[in-house]
Design goal:
Elements: H1 4-15, H2 19-26, H3 30-44, E1 49-51, E2 56-58, H4 60-63, E3 64-70, H5 102-112, E4 116-121, E5 128-135, H6 139-142
Antiparallel strand pairs: 1-2, 3-5, 4-5
Helix pairs in contact: 2-3
């Protein structure tokens, strides 16, 4: 999604039975909801919802939500990736600032939302790729937005 506002908008849509119900929940007209959804789908390059005259349903792509962040830092050895998701665990990089909380916070927030965190090599450069995978239809995600 482009930002958390888009994620909240999509989450609300996923919980509503129709565009009209979503429009009422948002305090706007159904055409305004339809335009915003179309713009979001165009930015993402994927259709998120099936629309009929009377109901909405998630497409397979709309059921999943995936965020990734890549860096070109020193990376994290595969053998230590599970450990860095624990609070206060730091790699042996004394010259690097930090308290060892960042990835543990990401991991805990993902857990609270029923999401999974995956750490992998950054294939585009040296460094790390951190991915968070949500099920957008999941009540744990929907209830928090």
């Amino acid at each position: 999604m482009a930002d958390t506002t888009d994620l909240g908008f999509f989450s609300l849509l996923a919980r509503q039975p129709s565009l009209a119900a979503a429009a009422q929940a948002l305090g706007v007209t159904p055409p305004a909801v339809s335009r915003r959804l179309a713009a979001l789908e165009a930015r993402l390059g994927v259709r998120l919802l099936n629309r009929t005259t009377r109901r909405l349903s998630l497409t397979p792509e709309g059921e999943r939500c995936h965020f990734s962040v890549r860096d070109n830092g020193p990376g994290i050895p595969a053998s230590e990736r599970a450990d860095v998701l624990r609070r206060f665990h730091r790699l042996n990089h004394e010259d690097q600032p930090g308290s060892g909380l960042g990835l543990s916070i990401v991991s805990r927030i993902a857990e609270l939302h029923g999401a999974t965190v995956v750490l992998a090599d950054n294939e585009a450069a040296r460094g790390l790729t951190i991915s968070v995978h949500f099920n957008a239809g999941d009540q744990a995600l929907a209830s928090t937005l």
